[in-house]
């Protein structure tokens, strides 16, 4: 579900808007979305409904729209922290982004399942520590490609 080419380590971005633009740009380059600007708009629209910030420096922005061609998880680890509305008031440094095509009920189930799997794993201190300190994209992929 996640590939090394969708993992970005050591990025310097300064706001949610910059993160959403970065995600959209990469997703467009990787042919995950049809339109880069629509992807930015979709992420902002979803974020406006309810913040996707969690706690301990993690956020999970996500959307399920017609603009998405294929399901993907992107992961961005920032070199810096940014302001984000989170449960614990802490800034965010680690961002999982879930993009799922709109349409079938199956896609809706996949969308919810991916959010749930990431959120449940983020309850585990060991998982958070490994994600936050992994040195390579390969390590991140191995951690995120969950065992069922």
The total beta strand count reads 5
Work out the count of structural domains: 1
- Helical segment tally? 5
Percent helix, as a range, is: 40-55%
Task: Compute the average pLDDT.
Answer: 92
Structural class of the secondary elements? alpha/beta
CATH architecture grouping = 3-Layer(aba) Sandwich
Main β-sheet description? 5 strands, mixed
Following the backbone from N to C, one meets helices and strands in this order, namely EHHEEEEHHH
Hey, roughly how much beta strand do the residues contain? 15-25%
User: What top-tier CATH class fits best?
Assistant: Alpha Beta
Are there runs of 5+ residues with pLDDT below 50, and where? none
> How would you describe the shape?
globular
Radius of gyration: 14 Å
Model description:
It is a single chain. The chain has 148 residues and is α/β, with parallel strands linked by helices. The protein has one domain: Mannitol-specific EII, Chain A (3-Layer(aba) Sandwich), CATH 3.40.930. Helices cover 42% and strands 22% of the residues. The chain has five helices and five strands, in the order E-H-H-E-E-E-E-H-H-H. Strands 1, 2, 3, 4 and 5 form a five-stranded mixed sheet that branches. The mean pLDDT is 92. One of its GO terms (biological process) is phosphoenolpyruvate-dependent sugar phosphotransferase system. Pfam families: PTS_EIIA_2 (PF00359). Keywords: Phosphoprotein, Phosphotransferase system, Sugar transport, Transferase, Transport. This is PTS system, fructose-specific IIA component.
């Amino acid at each position: 579900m996640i590939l090394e080419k969708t993992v970005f380590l050591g990025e310097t971005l300064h706001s949610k808007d910059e993160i959403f633009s970065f995600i959209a740009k990469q997703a467009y380059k990787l042919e995950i979305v049809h339109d880069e600007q629509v992807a930015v708009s979709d992420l902002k629209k979803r974020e406006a409904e309810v913040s996707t910030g969690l706690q301990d420096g993690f956020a999970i922005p996500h959307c399920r729209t017609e603009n998405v061609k294929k399901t993907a998880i992107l992961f961005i680890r920032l070199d810096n922290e940014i302001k984000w509305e989170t449960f614990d008031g802490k800034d965010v440094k680690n961002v999982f982004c879930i993009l799922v095509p709109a349409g079938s009920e199956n896609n809706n189930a996949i969308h919810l399942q991916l959010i749930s799997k990431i959120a449940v794993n983020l309850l585990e201190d060991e998982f958070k520590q490994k994600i936050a300190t992994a040195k390579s994209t390969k390590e991140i992929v191995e951690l995120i490609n969950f065992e069922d």
